[in-house]
Amino acid sequence: MATTTVPQPEPTTDERRGPVVAFKNVSITFDSGKPVLDDLSFSVERGQQLIILGPAGTGKSVLLKLVDGLLQPDSGSIHVFGEDIVAMRERDRFKLRARIGMVFQESALFDSLNVEDNVAYRLNEGRVPLEESHKRVEEVLNFVALPGAIAKFPSELSGGMRRRVSIARAIITKPDLILYDSPTGGLDPITSTTIVELVVKQRDVSHTTALLITHRLQDAFTLATHQWNFEENKMEPIPNGGIDPSTRFLVLNEGKIVFEGSTQELVHSPDPWLKQYLS
Ligand SMILES: Nc1ncnc2c1ncn2[C@@H]1O[C@H](COP(=O)(O)OP(=O)(O)OP(=O)(O)O)[C@@H](O)[C@H]1O
């Protein structure tokens, strides 16, 4: 299969130094006594899109929370943008989190806030002037194709619209890293595809490094094999059976990495467990 090349923006100084995310021998155990993540080591380079797959309860969400510093490992080191997120003070972790956009499972919008206030939440925290914040909310709602929803409340939106708002909230600060926790979870297949389209658009417009959990293999392969068509403003298959070169896969099972590699390596893996999981 052919691959396409995507022009990449210049790296910032800290990112020239190494991976955006690096786990080394990371383990975490909760009350059950059985490790949820057991001695995990992997890294994500700048501009890469790491799709995380694996059966339910294998620690995928825990992994994303570790990247965001919302959980602490029992052992091992985690570096984000070259900084040791485990050792740093909470105040510094808070600053680092400002560079990360998180799309939580089930959208996690504030029900009492309208779309504008949900989307502008981090700008308001950062005391961005109201006029500037309003302009940026309008821009980002246009990007996620929800220009008419600015004054609505989450309860007035469909599941797919809520996911769009959640993505708008994550990207409004132009983050250097986006963490998507099951962005299509619980959505019907057609709505899921519209969200995948949005993730592809964000990837191809901004080249933001991303980690994305999905339970739907179909979505994972759509992400790997599609690109954003800037002329027609829609997602399309990469010509000649091409594969997005920035997409990589990490497959977890029972707290361990059972696969890490490219799309082609994944589909051609001889591993019997993986073959069955993908079938
Ligand atoms: N804060 C916590 N305290 C105690 N146990 C937790 C906590 N967070 C996660 N777990 C447990 O860790 C295990 C892995 O959970 P996690 O949500 O990461 O799985 P997952 O792979 O994302 O699952 P799914 O595919 O169903 O979303 C589960 O058994 C869960 O109950």
Descriptive keywords:
alpha/beta, binds adenosine-5'-triphosphate, 279 residues, 4-stranded antiparallel β-sheet, Rossmann fold, 2 domains
Note the beta-strand portion. Answer: 15-25%
Query: What is the first-to-last residue Cα distance?
Result: 20 Å
Order of helices and strands: HEEEHEEHEHHHHEHEHEEEEHH
Shape: globular
Q: Which ligands, by name, code or SMILES, are bound? A: adenosine-5'-triphosphate
Radius of gyration: 18 Å
Q: What's the CATH first level of the largest domain?
A: Alpha Beta
The biggest sheet amounts to:
6 strands, mixed
Q: Might you state the CATH topology name of the largest domain?
A: Rossmann fold
Going by CATH, the homologous superfamily of the largest domain would be: P-loop containing nucleotide triphosphate hydrolases
User: Which spans have pLDDT < 50 for at least 5 consecutive residues?
Assistant: 1-6
CATH architecture of the largest domain: 3-Layer(aba) Sandwich
Structural domain count: 2
Strand order of the largest sheet: 6-7-8-3-11-12
Count of DSSP H/I helices = 11
Overall residue-averaged pLDDT value: 91
Instruction: Output the structural class.
Output: alpha/beta
Task: Find the count of extended strands (DSSP E, 2+ residues).
Answer: 12
Helix content: 25-40%
InterPro entries: AAA+_ATPase, ABC_transporter-like_ATP-bd, ABC_transporter-like_CS, P-loop_NTPase
Domain ABC transporter: 21-279
Organism: Granulicella pectinivorans
GO molecular function, one term: ATP hydrolysis activity
